Amino acid sequence: MRRISLVLASNNQHKVTEIRKILPKCFDLVSLKDAGITSELPESKGTIMGNATQKANFVWGATCIECLADDSGLEVEALEGRPGVDSAHYSGFPISADRNMELVLSQLKGLENRRASFVTILALIQEGVCYHFEGRVFGTISEEKRGKNGFGYDPIFIPDGQSLTFAEMDEKRKNKISHRALALGKLKEFFDLNAEN
Fold first, then answer.
1. Do 79 and 91 form a contact (C-beta atoms < 8 A)?
2. CATH assignment at residue 23
3. 47: alpha, beta or left, given left = phi > 0 and alpha = psi -120 to 50?
4. How many structural domains comprise the chain?
């Protein structure tokens, strides 16, 4: 497969590291800093897809270099889809993953329905055209935080068919089944298909 260079439109170092580990080595992911972008990326569209697209468009507009943006969220059924697009700052500012998880756990206290899903939407801009790739994994919210690996809501999310939270899994196992891995798999298939045509 040919080498593919993309600016990765994210200031979240956890996401950057995870994406780099999941994608094949033929992908050269350029950091925002290396692309000359030092400002915060905009995230004001109110939806996960809207934010991913907005970030990709911002980077494309600033660099005219093909780029990849990611936005993700935890959607809890009993909370009518919250925290959703507000996942990163659900409990307010400054951003705290621990406070976010505690808020979700407190809102679910005493409720039987703990169904949830993790969703990632990737926005790829190639030759000025934006393409989207979605990954979604279904599961349940645990009764308490479990595990030290991962980031974000990983310690309270148990994927269907598993007994461990994402944070209790080793990196290799999580990166095979996560929402981000599913979206990145579709991205790779897109490039594979285009390489054949």
1. no
2. 3.90.950.10
3. beta
4. 1
Residues of the chain with confidence (pLDDT) below 50: none
pLDDT of residue 15: 85
Alpha-helix residue ranges (DSSP H) falling in 3-147:
13-22, 48-63, 97-108
Residue 60 φ/ψ, nearest 5 degrees:
-60, -45
Residues 63, 35 contacting (CB under 8 angstroms): yes
Which amino acid is located at 164 in the chain? L
Determine the pLDDT at residue 197.
58
Contact 153, 87 (CB under 8 A): yes
| Distances from the Cα of 169 to the Cα of 80, 165, 172, 192, angstroms | 28, 7, 8, 29
Q: Which residues contact 69 (CB under 8 A, 6 or more apart)?
A: 9, 10, 41, 52, 53, 55, 56, 59, 122, 123
Residues noted as catalytic: 71
Domain that holds residue 87: 4-196
Q: What is the DSSP secondary structure assignment for residue 40, as one 8-state letter?
A: P
